[in-house]
Design brief:
The protein is mainly alpha-helical. The chain contains 3 helices and no strands.
């Protein structure tokens, strides 16, 4: 049976891998200092890490899975995309909050 996800698999895996790597880098840089001060952004970053990384791990698993239901390929991909978009949105909102907090704290 034909692999209907083949045209979508490589771009989504690449995007997920890059964003997941970036998220892990941000997490390792910021989480050791998390909760030393009680700022909202530190808590939001921790929550973002707890939400974003597992979602993207699931997206990666779903796209790498070879035994997906071939008859429901469109539905399977749509569900994967429904996980991907909120995951990236939440991650970028976390980054924006970090930037805003950094601006507010460091402005003179």
């Amino acid at each position: 049976m034909e692999d209907k996800l083949h045209p979508f698999r490589q771009p989504l895996i690449t995007a997920t891998g890059i964003i997941l790597g970036f998220a892990l880098n941000v997490a390792t840089a910021s989480l050791p200092n998390a909760f030393k001060s009680k700022t909202i952004v530190e808590r939001f970053m921790s929550l973002g890490t707890l939400v974003h990384i597992p979602i993207y791990t699931i997206v990666m698993f779903r796209m790498l899975r070879k035994d997906y239901p071939r008859k429901k390929a469109e539905s399977y991909y749509r569900k994967t995309l429904v996980l991907f978009v909120p995951g990236i949105t939440f991650f970028y909102l976390t980054i924006i909050c970090m930037m805003v907090e950094s601006y507010l704290v460091n402005r003179t």
